[in-house]
C-alpha cells in the first residue's frame, strides 16, 4: 500500500470518527489534569484565576470544579464526578481516571474495526461482573470502634493523623444509627478556622454572631425556640395599609406580635434561632431580658440545631398558640456560648439526637480551605466505610478483580469481548497511576503484583509506594470504602458509554426572539 493510500485511509477514519476523537481527547485532557494527584505520592495542582488568585490542591473534585472547561464531553465528565462527590463524598479522581481509561481503550478498539455497539455490550457486561466481584470481596466492619476506620480516615485524609483522629472521635459521639441515615452527611459537620484548636464539639456550631454582644456570652441550661421564618409581625400589603380597616388590622397585628414576645419571655426561652430577619421590637424586648437571638442562619444549620436540641421548627404564625403548646415545641441544651475569636456560636449537649461538629484548625488563612477539604474527604470516606464496608486500597483489589474478570471472557460471544478489555484497562489504571506517581515503572510493578497475588492467593497484595516492594495493603493499613470504588467504576462506565455512543456533533441553531407578525401577514 502506498503512502498516499495510507494517508487517504487515515483521513477517512479520522473523518468517520471525528466526533468520537474530539470527545475522547476532551475526556483524556480532564483525566490527565487529576491523575497526577492520586496516591500517597500524588502531587498538587495550582489553579489560577484571571485576577491572579491561586488555589493549590490535590483534591480531585476541587480541581474539576475550578477548571475553565467549555467542551461538552468534558463538562459531562465533570458533572458525573461531582455527582460522585455529592453521593459518596470521595473517589472523584478515581472515577475520572477510570472514565479516561475506558474511553481510551474503547477508541482503540473502535479504530481497529470493532463496532461501537459491541464495545458497549462488552463494557456493560464487564462492569456488571466487576461490581459483583467487588461486592463479594467487601469486608463489613463490626462496629464504629473498628481500627480500620482510622486507617480509612488516614488514607482519605492524606495521612493527617490529627484530622483522622477527629473524624473517628466524631463518629463515636454521633453513633451508628445517625451514621446510617440516608440524609445525614458527616462531611457537612466539618468546620475549619484559622487559629482554631482541633477539637470535636459535642453539639452544633452556628457560623453566626448573636444580634447583641452585650448579653452573657455563655450560659445554661438553655431553652431553645427555632423559627423557620422571619421573627416579625404578619405583613399587610401597601394597598391594605392605605385603608382605615387595613391600618386597624396592622395595629392589631403589632399588638399580637408584642403579646407573643411576652409569651416567649414567660416560657423562659433564652435562645432563639431564626431563619430570616428579626423585627426591632422583638430584638429590643428579648435582648433586654438576656435572650440570645441569632438571625439569618443557614437552613441546614438551623435544622441541625433543631434536631440536636429536640425543638420543632415553627413558623411565625405558630407563636399565636397557647403557652402549653409552645412549650412542647421548645428544645433544650446543656450550654450555649459565643466564641468571640472564631465568631461563631456553639450549642452543646442537646436533648434531641446526638450531633458532633469537627472543628479543624489551620495556621494561616491560605490553608484553611485545603484543611477543610481534607477533613471533609476523610469524614465522607469513613461514613461510606461504615455504610458499605471496605476493600484493600492502593489499586490492589482492582487488579484482583481484573484477574477474575479476564476468566469470564469465555461467557461473552463475538466481538463484545473487546468491550471487556476496556473494563480491564480501567481496573488496572488506578494501580498503574499510583505506582507511576510514586516514581516506579507501572508495567513492571503490575506484572509483579499480579504474579504475587496468584502465587500467594491474596487479593490485597500491592506496592509499597515508599520502597517499591510488594506488600499487603491490609498490613499497611491501606483501605478504601467499598462504596467509593463501586460508585467510581459505575460512574466511569456511564460516562464512557455516553461518549462512545456519540456519532455526530451538530451545533444547535440559535433561538431567535419571537416577533409579532407584520400587518397583513397570515
Distance between the termini: 63 Å
Helical proportion, percent range: 40-55%
Average pLDDT, to the nearest integer?
88
Q: How would you classify the helix and strand content by structural class? A: alpha/beta
Can you tell me the residue ranges where pLDDT is under 50 for at least 5 consecutive residues? 1-14
- Strand tally: 17
Question: In angstroms, what is the radius of gyration?
Answer: 29 Å
Q: Supply the CATH class of the largest domain.
A: Mainly Alpha
> What's the total helix number?
20
* Largest sheet properties: 8 strands, mixed
Oligomer: single chain
The percentage of residues in β strands lies in: 5-15%
CATH architecture term of the largest domain: Orthogonal Bundle
Q: Count the domains.
A: 2
CATH topology of the largest domain: GROEL, domain 1
Fourth-level CATH superfamily of the largest domain: GroEL-like equatorial domain
Amino acid at each position: 500500500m502506498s503512502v498516499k493510500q495510507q494517508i487517504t485511509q487515515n483521513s477517512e477514519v479520522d473523518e468517520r470518527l471525528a466526533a468520537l476523537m474530539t470527545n475522547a481527547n476532551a475526556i483524556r485532557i480532564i483525566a490527565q489534569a487529576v491523575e497526577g494527584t492520586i496516591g500517597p505520592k500524588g502531587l498538587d495542582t495550582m489553579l489560577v484565576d484571571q485576577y491572579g488568585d491561586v488555589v493549590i490542591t490535590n483534591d480531585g473534585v476541587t480541581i474539576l470544579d475550578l477548571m475553565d472547561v467549555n467542551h461538552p464531553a468534558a463538562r459531562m465528565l465533570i458533572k458525573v464526578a461531582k455527582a460522585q462527590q455529592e453521593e459518596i463524598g470521595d473517589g472523584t479522581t478515581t472515577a475520572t481516571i477510570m472514565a479516561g481509561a475506558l474511553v481510551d481503550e474503547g477508541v482503540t478498539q473502535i479504530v481497529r474495526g470493532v463496532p461501537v455497539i459491541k464495545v458497549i455490550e462488552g463494557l456493560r457486561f464487564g462492569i456488571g461482573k466487576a461490581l459483583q466481584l467487588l461486592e463479594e470481596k467487601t469486608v463489613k466492619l463490626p462496629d464504629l470502634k473498628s481500627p480500620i476506620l482510622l486507617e480509612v480516615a488516614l488514607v482519605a485524609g492524606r495521612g493527617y493523623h490529627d484530622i483522622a483522629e477527629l473524624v473517628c472521635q466524631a463518629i463515636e459521639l454521633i453513633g451508628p444509627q445517625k451514621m446510617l441515615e440516608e440524609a445525614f452527611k458527616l462531611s457537612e459537620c466539618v468546620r475549619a478556622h484559622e487559629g482554631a484548636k482541633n477539637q470535636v464539639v459535642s453539639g452544633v456550631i452556628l457560623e453566626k454572631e448573636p444580634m447583641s454582644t452585650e448579653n452573657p456570652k455563655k450560659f445554661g441550661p438553655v431553652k431553645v425556640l427555632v423559627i423557620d421564618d422571619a421573627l416579625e409581625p404578619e405583613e399587610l400589603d401597601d394597598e391594605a395599609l392605605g385603608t382605615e380597616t387595613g391600618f386597624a388590622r396592622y395595629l392589631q397585628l403589632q399588638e399580637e406580635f408584642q403579646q407573643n414576645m411576652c409569651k416567649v419571655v414567660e416560657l423562659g426561652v433564652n435562645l432563639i434561632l431564626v431563619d430570616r430577619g428579626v423585627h426591632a421590637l422583638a430584638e429590643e424586648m428579648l435582648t433586654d431580658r438576656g435572650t440570645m437571638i441569632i438571625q439569618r442562619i443557614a437552613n441546614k444549620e438551623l435544622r441541625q440545631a433543631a434536631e440536636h436540641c429536640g425543638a420543632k421548627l415553627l413558623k411565625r404564625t405558630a407563636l399565636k398558640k397557647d403557652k402549653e403548646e409552645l412549650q412542647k415545641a421548645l428544645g433544650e441544651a446543656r450550654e450555649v456560648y459565643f466564641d468571640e475569636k472564631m465568631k461563631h456560636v456553639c450549642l452543646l449537649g442537646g436533648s434531641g439526637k446526638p450531633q458532633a461538629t469537627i472543628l479543624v484548625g489551620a495556621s494561616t488563612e491560605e490553608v484553611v480551605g485545603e484543611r477543610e477539604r481534607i477533613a471533609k474527604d476523610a469524614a465522607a470516606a469513613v461514613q461510606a466505610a461504615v455504610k458499605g464496608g471496605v476493600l484493600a486500597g492502593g489499586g490492589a483489589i482492582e487488579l484482583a478483580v481484573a484477574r477474575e474478570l479476564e476468566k469470564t471472557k469465555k461467557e461473552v460471544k463475538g466481538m463484545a469481548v473487546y468491550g471487556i478489555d476496556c473494563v480491564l484497562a480501567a481496573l488496572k489504571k488506578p494501580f498503574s497511576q499510583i505506582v507511576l506517581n510514586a516514581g516506579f515503572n507501572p508495567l513492571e510493578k503490575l506484572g509483579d503484583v499480579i504474579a504475587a497475588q496468584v502465587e500467594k492467593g491474596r487479593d490485597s497484595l500491592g506496592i509499597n509506594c515508599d520502597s517499591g516492594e510488594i506488600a499487603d495493603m491490609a498490613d499497611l493499613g491501606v483501605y478504601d470504602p467499598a462504596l467509593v470504588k463501586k460508585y467510581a467504576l459505575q460512574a466511569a462506565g456511564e460516562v464512557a458509554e455516553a461518549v462512545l455512543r456519540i456519532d455526530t456533533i451538530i451545533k444547535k441553531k440559535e433561538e431567535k426572539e419571537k416577533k409579532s407578525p407584520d400587518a397583513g401577514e397570515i
